[in-house]
Amino acid sequence: MNRFVKVGFAALVLAAAIYLYYTEIKPVVIFGLRSDYAHAIPFQPVPAGLTSLKAESCGQCHREIYEEWKTSIHARAYDDPFFQAYWKKDKHMWVCLNCHTPLENQQPTLVKDIPRGRVEKAEQVPNPQYDAEYQKESVTCAACHVRDGVILGPYEDSAAPHPTQFDPNFRTAQVCYRCHNVVSGPAQFYNVGPCGTYAEYEGKFFMQERGFICQSCHMPEIDRPVATNGPIRHGRQHLWRGGHDPDMVKRAIAVQVKADREAVRPGERITFTLTLINAGAGHKIPTGDPDRHFTVEFSVEDKQGTVLERQSATMGRWILWQPAILELYDNRLLPLASRAYEFGYRVPEQAEGLILKTRVQYHILTDGQHEMLRTKYGLTADDPYRFVVYERDFPLSGELTAALNNSDRPSVSSRQRNEMSCQAEG
To answer: Whole-prediction pTM value?
Structure first.
């Protein structure tokens, strides 16, 4: 009997410990709460001289900037199908809105207190200033540029029909910090936070010695009038292309394919080496959401398209999500780093028509997660979540020299290549 009592008591203690762990220690979201994004940006009144905070109102004078913003992921951060599906999975947790619709003006509730940092226990009250239409503008103009009735910007000599103020943060990466440096929370052991692009970049060579900031790639420089009929100024495009844009991902990488011999001979083994290079990003690739990854794929096919042999490798982060979040492995590429992937194949005596297919794909999430979000949480089935960023075929008969010499895919502009070579030589 004593033995049964002890086992029962131990089971009770274990159950209590598990209950306390999941209700008082382990957060219900996959990130920690840093003070500056634990709350929405406080309510912003309409500055004098403007009729509204809405982007369309800003676009009456800042037309080109407004048109660029409309094409950006910032403008779709709330309606983005991936966000909506994940947010539904997370039971529409309010804290997610603090980056996807960051202004109090855009949020249906006001958070008065977050006891013990537990987001599920937050004290919320209805927001009388909530504007449902404004929420759909996601990361809108005022999220970055309006504070306390004043328009903030990067110029010290602005002349406009509304109050303006120079903010030096617009000339640094600091303006990106709030939402692109999400940190770890209790029982979360990431090497870098779950969306820690800023932390991957902060203090590195690109910022300190070359003068690169986030905007250098994500908001390209341009000379034009900032407002209609205004003077031509040196400014930036409001595009923010990134991990959802195939062309931006292609710009970040360079690919080289080499073989250990110049000609393919039947009966001999030939080894191909595909080298993937982070040639155009000032942070790790892939970056942002922990689910993002690359796959490097080799396959041998005959002239009928039958796959005779296949090999693949993955580059990304491997994270244990339960019972605690633990980052097990990270083989992503730092800026200018490279990794070589080898594929060996013994060429048969009859090699006529055989080809080696090489391919690099970029994935926003895994196939399994995509299927789960599609079937359970309303993600549209045709929404693209993976892209081919490099693909080339090589004949497995005859000379390889010409094909290999043409295999390198230019990935970055000449200006970027010069900048990267400067660092490599340094």
So the answer is: 0.89
